[in-house]
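Box S1 | Example of a co-folding query
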Amino acid sequence: MTTAQTTDLIFALDSLSISSNSADALMKGIVALLHEKVTRYNWVGFYMMEKDGDRDVLVLGPFKGTSTPHTRIPLSHGICGAAASTEKTIVVDDVNSDPRYLACSLETKSEIVVPVFVHGKVVGELDIDSDFRAAFGPDDRALCEHAALVLGQFFERHPYARPAHI
Ligand code: SME
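Box S1 (continued) | Returned holo structure for methionine sulfoxide
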């Protein structure tokens, strides 16, 4: 990814956050934009945190790519669970050498998971898989973190759009 492409996509994400009239529309717009414009992003989706009894679970939201068996992920499982519980972006250059990885597609080689924060609390995450090894460099990380930021700031601006537990 070139810096120019990153800058264009960051501008497009900012435009989406202004034009979207619901969090669901914004999530669908972000997923469609990144999946369509960055050919190496083969699976793009959001997982949102929900309560399951007294435990948190990541529930699959809008996504583009092949369907995944992982529709509900406990925080103790997967790279998704690790990113939510450590509250940090995780980049995995080779998913097959990471024992945390929960396979979605046999083609996937690398992955990035970026937490979405609302007032400093993790409410979900953006997950992107690539069929190419080490697909997520510094520009990709900046782009994906901006996409997560845009959604978190939307929830902060529109409290009524937040899931009940936030
Ligand atoms: N790979 C993720 C699970 C989600 S699917 O890839 C869409 C993980 O290890 O948490």
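Strands lie at 43-52, 55-64, 72-74, 90-92, 110-118, 121-130. The chain has a mean pLDDT of 95.
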